[in-house]
Amino acid sequence: MNKKIYFPFLIALALIAGCSNHSIPNKPEQTSSSSEKTRAGALSLDYVNQYLNETDINIKKAFVAEHIHPDTQSMLVDSADIITKAEDKIFNPQLIDRSETLSDGTTGYASLLKGDGETEIIVMEKGGKVVWGYLSTSTGDQKSNFDMLRKLFN
Questions:
Q1: Considering just the CA atoms, what is the radius of gyration of the chain in Å?
Q2: SS (H, E, C) the chain
């Protein structure tokens, strides 16, 4: 199957799976300094640097094997062969804010990151693993999900 067709299919599949996972956002986690926020969001920063921005397929696949939640791991390992378009990359990412979430009785986190330019990403984490990343440059349902999650940080 053509990778250009396959990747949107994976995104749609993840969206369907994500929609059935009812997350209840809590108040944003309070941290006392920017450096504490950065340490707390290290996994989200690694997702951007080692998966989203990375061009070495082997590094991307190793990141998926070690740091992606089992619920979405198979989808992201398949898409690790795809190099992210330049306009979707987050250069020099910084953690802007982090919010605690509750899903199926499990505490997770939503981290808002921004780099150079206007592109933002919200990385969802559960059980110490990345579940999914939502880019502000997405379209369709992915963009709707980003916009909904972005309200956690306003």
A1: 15
A2: CCHHHHHHHHHHHHHHHHHCCCEEEEEECCCCCHHHHHHHCHHHHHHHHHHHCCCCHHHHHHHHHHHECHHHHHHHHHHCCCCCCHHHCCCCCEEEEEEEEEECCEEEEEEEEECCCCCEEEEEEECCEEEEEEECCCCHHHHHHHHHHHHHHC
CA 66/CA 46 separation, integer angstroms? 11
pLDDT in tens, 6-58: 343 334 334 434 443 434 344 444 444 455 455 568 999 999 999 999 999 99
Nearest by Cα to 122 from 81, 90, 91: 90
Mean pLDDT confidence for 114-136: 93
Chain mean pLDDT for the chain: 79
Specify the pTM: 0.74
Beta partners for residue 123, in sequence order: 111, 133
